[in-house]
Specification:
Length: about 325
């Protein structure tokens, strides 16, 4: 894979950064040590301005080019996942129960490498805003940074981000205009009935039977309510009920992940989900409590920015390794 020679010279240094970050993962907004590490690197590189404490631990560094022009944002996420690392790597997590399992240590390293190069060369017009975001995995850190005004404060005209893609060809770039990643909503449903002995179901109100009916009917939303040309997913991923073979439980629970690409379909899925769960609860004589987490919206790329990113990628890795559709 071709790499700009000057950046190729950073390889050993960047590997050291990445392994340090991998050994010291932090969760959500509590990326204090990570932010301090990034801030020191940016100061060492000689960025023109450094703004800390955005969305608690987020940072924005500014590098000015050699002439007038727009401010372009480059963004990386910083947080890890609440996972016990068992890889056996020499640089495995030193913090039990926390791991960079999604590659955000790599994302931070990539942006730091870009920052070092841009600060040294400044061969561009305008400015670059280096955006380091906490709480991507959970907590909506990107939204918090936007709500705290980074777009207006730094007059950012567009923002570019990149995510590692294990399983794809080394050096490949993959993007597309329009929706590229679905919204992510999560629903937990708790069904309450009346428990009792399994040999006397007539004296019980069985939450398990009601739950099964709900789960089956939820699967009809996509086939009977969503337009065939729209894309969506509803997957029931957890079911919990009972502790003994001869007891009908009082409570049963299930969880679903709900994903779509447009606001209209997203709203429809939520509406139909509630209608089905509440309707079955009434028909079976149980009660159902729904905890519906309205999560991240879809990622939607504008065509002009996508085409620009693909053009730059082709210049670096060649036409054959870029898929922009």
């Amino acid at each position: 894979m071709p790499v700009i020679n000057r950046i190729a010279d950073y390889t050993d240094e960047m590997q050291t950064w990445r392994r340090h970050l991998h050994e010291n993962p932090e969760l959500m907004f509590e990326c204090h040590n990570t932010a301090a590490f990034i801030a020191q690197k940016l100061r060492d590189f000689g960025v023109d301005a450094l703004h800390e404490g955005i969305a608690t631990t987020g940072l924005v560094g500014i590098i000015k080019g050699r002439g007038e022009g727009p401010t372009i944002g480059l963004r990386a996420d910083m947080d890890a996942l609440p996972i016990l690392e068992q890889t056996g790597l020499d640089y495995a997590s030193k913090i039990p129960g926390k791991m960079h399992a999604c590659g955000h240590d790599g994302h931070v390293t990539m942006l730091l490498g870009a920052a070092k190069y841009l600060a040294e060369t400044r061969n561009f017009a305008g400015s670059v805003a280096l955006i380091f975001q906490p709480a991507e995995e959970e907590g909506g850190g990107g939204l918090v940074m936007v709500e705290e005004g980074i777009i207006e404060r730094f007059n950012i005209s567009s923002i570019y981000g990149i995510h590692n893609a294990p399983g794809h060809e080394l050096g490949g770039f993959y993007t597309m205009p329009g929706p590229i990643m679905a919204s992510v909503d999560t629903a937990w449903v708790t069904v309450l009935g009346r428990g009792g002995h399994g040999a006397m179901p007539h004296e019980c109100v069985d939450p398990v039977v009601a739950l099964v009916a709900m789960v089956q009917s939820i699967q009809t939303i996509l086939s009977r309510n969503v337009y065939a040309m729209d894309e969506a997913v509803i997957s029931v991923t957890q079911i919990h009920a009972g502790t003994a073979s001869n007891i009908i439980p009082q409570e049963a629970r299930f969880c679903a992940t709900i994903r779509s690409f447009t606001p209209e379909v997203r709203a429809l899925l939520k509406s139909r989900f509630y209608a089905i769960v509440e309707g079955h609860a009434a028909s079976f004589g149980v009660t159902a409590a729904i905890d519906y987490d309205w999560g991240y919206p879809p990622t939607v790329n504008t065509r002009a920015n996508t085409e620009f990113a693909a053009m730059v990628a082709r210049d670096i890795v060649g036409e054959a390794k870029v898929d922009a559709e």
